[in-house]
């Protein structure tokens, strides 16, 4: 079996790995909102973006100067050109300008019936300028019926209901329920406009049930286009995951990162855009280290796929089945044993004593972590686990690099386990602290010694600073090895890294595929 057999985390044909997403929206020439934000958001969330333009605005980070709505006949031509050639997996609808545009888009949606339709009922820009003619609000109701999800901000929610804007989160939720039940649609109520220290969002289903997610409010004035980016991201992730709450968790976490890094962009003097590609631009590779920077960029798709895995999502929210977690830990222990041998091989090949010591220490620590896994988590297991197919294939790949490869190949092959693991660990840890601020893993006894999240003790130890520092050192060593390598060897290094990165993805997805339910669920030992 090849690694390819294991790494497809989208075996369900209704789920689409790279969804083709069409944004029907207005243009913002300053690049932060509208079509421009949508295309960036779609790409950042792993989709292929397309754009049909409903209106052109002359705007920047300070406000909207004017709006030009081209003839609807041309809008129709754009829609037809795209739909007659390309399968559209999802549509995001943003600024529509006036009633004629709304009716044209509504007719097109009624005819083509795209699988996923997210409607962001854009009415007023964050600067306060109107983006929808006042007499067109009624026409929006026609489109509402065709949306799988509608994402109004608080003033827009109020307009859709003909009420005054909600002033508290409770009021907002009540309005969201009224719209969802009254119009039989799924509504995303967004808390961006609240004056609260956090930024809650809630999915309200047509039956009125609520799925709420709370993120910290990022302190930045650069929030231009958050609504556009969120709705386009949801249209992109829903076809990948087929689950609205999971899609919201993933996109919110991404959007929080985009807001956290927004100030780095330095675009305009008003409300600037968010950093859609913060993960791709991640400067964790030390300055001047082109080789590892390239590896990081090359692994973007794998990293995006890892964060979207059901295993990771469920580990984060605590809904992961115990058998899956136990399978993961047992396979991790087996993996670490093999990994330790390959690290010892890196030590044997190292060109300097410092690097020899680094790998020897790492090899030894690996065995210690393996022992710790057995002591703290796997303890009373009846029989030692057998390596699963992914574990075996991954370790075989590493051992092959170790037995025949150059030093560069060995270090490139072992690097993803450091780097991707540290990256996902930090993200998991960060999100855990946001979602479960009071869960200390049961240490203070206030939660009955158990914590509200079953894996809190594990997640709290996940973002280990010493491990992140070791990852940084392994990256620097890889760069040094690349500088001393021939072009052909560098290519082999790149391939070894890429293979291991795919195995990291497959490893996180393996419990879903291979964890057996033959034993009663094991109780997790307390730490
Ligand atoms: N400062 C912030 N920190 C964290 N999340 C935020 C912040 N501001 C907005 N958000 C989030 O961004 C998303 C968009 O929310 P908001 O209610 O501002 O929509 P909007 O008004 O349609 O956006 P836009 O500014 O593009 O018009 C929501 O998920 C919201 O929680
Ligand atoms: C084109 C366009 N669409 C949407 C918004 C809302 O942010 C905006 N400012 N501009």
UniProtKB/TrEMBL annotation:
<dbReference type="GO" id="GO:0008902">
    <property type="term" value="F:hydroxymethylpyrimidine kinase activity"/>
</dbReference>
<dbReference type="Pfam" id="PF08543">
    <property type="entry name" value="Phos_pyr_kin"/>
</dbReference>
<keyword id="KW-0784">Thiamine biosynthesis</keyword>
<dbReference type="InterPro" id="IPR004399">
    <property type="entry name" value="HMP/HMP-P_kinase_dom"/>
</dbReference>
<dbReference type="GO" id="GO:0009228">
    <property type="term" value="P:thiamine biosynthetic process"/>
</dbReference>
<dbReference type="InterPro" id="IPR013749">
    <property type="entry name" value="PM/HMP-P_kinase-1"/>
</dbReference>
<feature type="domain" description="Thiaminase-2/PQQC">
    <location>
        <begin position="310"/>
        <end position="510"/>
    </location>
</feature>
<dbReference type="GO" id="GO:0005524">
    <property type="term" value="F:ATP binding"/>
</dbReference>
<dbReference type="Pfam" id="PF03070">
    <property type="entry name" value="TENA_THI-4"/>
</dbReference>
<keyword id="KW-0808">Transferase</keyword>
<dbReference type="InterPro" id="IPR004305">
    <property type="entry name" value="Thiaminase-2/PQQC"/>
</dbReference>
<comment type="function">
    <text>Catalyzes the phosphorylation of hydroxymethylpyrimidine phosphate (HMP-P) to HMP-PP, and of HMP to HMP-P.</text>
</comment>
<dbReference type="InterPro" id="IPR029056">
    <property type="entry name" value="Ribokinase-like"/>
</dbReference>
<feature type="domain" description="Pyridoxamine kinase/Phosphomethylpyrimidine kinase">
    <location>
        <begin position="28"/>
        <end position="275"/>
    </location>
</feature>
<protein>
    <submittedName>
        <fullName>Bifunctional hydroxymethylpyrimidine kinase/phosphomethylpyrimidine kinase</fullName>
        <ecNumber>2.7.1.49</ecNumber>
        <ecNumber>2.7.4.7</ecNumber>
    </submittedName>
</protein>
<keyword id="KW-0547">Nucleotide-binding</keyword>
<comment type="pathway">
    <text>Cofactor biosynthesis; thiamine diphosphate biosynthesis; 4-amino-2-methyl-5-diphosphomethylpyrimidine from 5-amino-1-(5-phospho-D-ribosyl)imidazole: step 3/3.</text>
</comment>
<dbReference type="GO" id="GO:0005829">
    <property type="term" value="C:cytosol"/>
</dbReference>
<dbReference type="GO" id="GO:0008972">
    <property type="term" value="F:phosphomethylpyrimidine kinase activity"/>
</dbReference>
<dbReference type="InterPro" id="IPR016084">
    <property type="entry name" value="Haem_Oase-like_multi-hlx"/>
</dbReference>
<keyword id="KW-0418">Kinase</keyword>
<keyword id="KW-0067">ATP-binding</keyword>
């Amino acid at each position: 079996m090849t690694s390819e057999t294991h790494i497809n985390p989208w075996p369900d044909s209704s789920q689409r790995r790279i969804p083709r997403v069409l944004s029907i929206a207005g243009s913002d020439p300053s690049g932060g909102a509208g079509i421009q934000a949508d295309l960036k958001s779609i790409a950042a969330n792993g989709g292929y973006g397309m754009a049909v333009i409903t209106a052109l605005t002359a705007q920047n980070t300070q406000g909207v100067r004017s709006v030009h709505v081209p003839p609807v006949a041309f809008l129709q031509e754009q829609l037809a050109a795209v739909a007659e050639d390309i399968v559209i997996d999802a549509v995001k609808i943003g600024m529509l300008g006036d009633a004629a545009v709304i009716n044209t888009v509504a007719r097109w949606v009624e005819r083509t019936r795209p699988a996923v339709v997210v409607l962001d009922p854009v009415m007023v820009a964050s600067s306060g300028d109107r983006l929808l003619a006042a007499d067109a609000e009624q026409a929006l109701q026609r489109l509402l019926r065709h949306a799988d999800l509608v994402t109004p901000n608080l003033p827009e929610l109020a307009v859709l209901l003909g009420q005054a804007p909600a002033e508290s989160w409770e009021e907002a939720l009540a309005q969201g329920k009224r719209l969802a039940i009254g119009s039989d649609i799924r509504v995303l109520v967004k808390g961006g406009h609240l004056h609260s220290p956090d930024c809650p969002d809630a999915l309200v289903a047509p039956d009125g049930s609520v799925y709420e997610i709370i993120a910290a409010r990022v302190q930045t004035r650069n929030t231009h286009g958050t609504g556009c980016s969120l709705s386009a991201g949801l249209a992109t992730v829903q076809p990948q995951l087929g689950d609205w709450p999971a899609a919201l968790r993933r996109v919110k976490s991404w959007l929080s990162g985009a807001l956290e890094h927004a100030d780095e962009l330095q675009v305009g003097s008003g409300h600037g855009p968010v950093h859609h590609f913060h993960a791709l631009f991640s400067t964790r590779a030390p300055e001047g280290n082109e080789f590892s920077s390239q590896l990081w960029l090359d692994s973007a798709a794998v990293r995006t796929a890892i964060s979207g895995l059901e295993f990771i999502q469920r580990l984060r929210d605590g809904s992961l089945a115990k058998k899956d977690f136990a399978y993961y830990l047992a396979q991790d222990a087996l993996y670490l044993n093999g990994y330790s041998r390959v690290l010892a091989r890196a030590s044997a090949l190292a060109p300097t004593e410092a690097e020899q010591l680094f790998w020897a220490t790492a090899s030894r620590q690996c065995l210690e972590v393996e022992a710790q896994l057995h002591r703290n988590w796997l303890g009373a297991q009846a029989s030692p686990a057998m390596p699963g197919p992914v574990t075996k294939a991954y370790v075989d790949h590493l051992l092959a690099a170790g037995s025949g490869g150059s030093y560069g190949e060995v270090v490139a092959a072992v690097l993803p386990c450091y780097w991707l693991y540290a990256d996902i660990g930090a993200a998991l840890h960060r999100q855990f602290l946001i979602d479960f601020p009071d869960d200390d893993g049961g240490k203070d006894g206030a939660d009955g010694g158990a914590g509200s999240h079953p894996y809190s003790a594990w997640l709290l130890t996940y973002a280990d600073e010493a491990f992140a520092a070791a990852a940084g050192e392994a990256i620097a060593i890889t760069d040094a090895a690349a500088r001393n390598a021939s072009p052909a060897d560098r290519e082999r290094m790149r391939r070894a890294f890429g293979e291991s990165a795919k195995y990291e993805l497959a490893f996180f997805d393996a419990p879903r595929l291979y964890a057996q339910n033959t034993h009663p669920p094991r109780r997790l030992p307390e730490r």
